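Summary for the steering committee. The consortium agreed at its last meeting that each partner would contribute one worked example illustrating the joint modelling workflow. Our contribution is presented below. We chose a case with several input lines so that the handling of multiple components could be demonstrated. No manual editing was applied between input and output; the record is shown as generated.
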Amino acid sequence: MFLKFLVKPNFIAFCKSENIYYVLNEQYKKNEIIFNETKEFENKKDLEKYIKETSEENPQTYVSTFITSQNQGVVPSCSKQKYKEMSIEIENVKFTCINNKYSFYTTLYELMEIKKAYPFADFIYPAFAIIDFNSTIRTNTLYILSTKEYSYILVYGNKIPVFSDIFEIVEETLQEEEEEIEEFDDIDIVDDFDDTLDEDIENIEDIDENDEEKIENLDMEYKVFNHVKEALKEYYDNGGDFIEKIFIFDTIGLQESITSTINDELFIEAKLEKIDILKTLNKISRENV
Amino acid sequence: MYSFTKPKPKPLVREDTKLWLVFIGVSLILYISFAIFLQIKSILYNKDIKNYNKEIVTLNKKIENIKNEKEFIYKQKTLYEDIMVKNSLMKDSIKNLLDLIPDPITLSSIYFDKNKLIIYGITPTQDIYNMLMLPPLESIFTETKTYFYQLPNGWYKFKSENYLKEKQ
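What follows is the complete predicted structure of the assembly.
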């Protein structure tokens, strides 16, 4: 309809991270952005209210989000036979075929849960769509999308993704912390307590917030590096080709040093790219409308 | 692409905007149809004006014709009156003429023309004619010619030609 050219749709992308809803609302005129707004909500009601208000203001509002959980993956084909070969129950999954070459899938249960939780969402994308949309080199390349909760790994063989993996970060942190606590239980704190320790405690108070962040980041980089290593091991174990390049799509502020770590330890060229997940989701939605 | 779900159908405009658009649309349609109605009316009136103008021209021509006819009728009437007068005069003249015919003379035919009168008749003698008939004729006409033929019984058949000279 010709009127559609006159109406400028709003694209809202949102995702939940650490119990906070991050929202990006954009409006484009042709290819130029004419309005953008970022919001953070602590509860879903506020998010719903914001989306409802925007939709009332402009009925042409498209809301998108992506599946964060581990119940998703990639299959290097669109045929049901391939799903059977990979022991994926086709009756329990929903898949989206890309260019008739490969497909991303999620479980019907997961999709139903998301639809129930966010009935206002128009587009529900797999997390790997963010990687696939931003990927530039598609031959023997490993991509890792690093978020606060998960590391999403997608490996491209010959032009198409052939392997995917998802690592949860929060769970590992908890496990590690538990392990640390167990270790502390073994130490007799009272015996070791002396003036030196007291000084150390004073020094700890002097550590500024930046240093804390750096420590956290180093921890994250270490985890991301480990995820890459694990994914590579699994990929090679499954008979994958040699990976020539690794791309890290960073959304949490990783240090550039991770690329040299990968280079030194794995002997694979690595590149760090900062990406905005919400912006990417809106870009995909714009192509879909 | 990529999405597991299809977007819900989105209306192009808000409900109240839709209502406004309907109102604006309806008023526009009314406005346009009224404008078209006025335009058509104006075209029809213009056509009527043209027709009336043509009719005026035709009627003017008719009036002209009627005037001409009237003049012609007036002329006819004058002519008729003239003829009537002339006829009446002629009638009187004939009556007078017949009154003039004395008893012994018998007329067999009379021929009238505008300026002449030809009488055929029978008289017992030429003298009776010359005495009783000729004087009144000579008093009326400017020129009078009489021809006599004697009949076997001794009477005379005569032809009298009488002319009136037209006044110049």
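The longest helix of chain B spans residues 15-100. Chain B has a mean pLDDT of 89.
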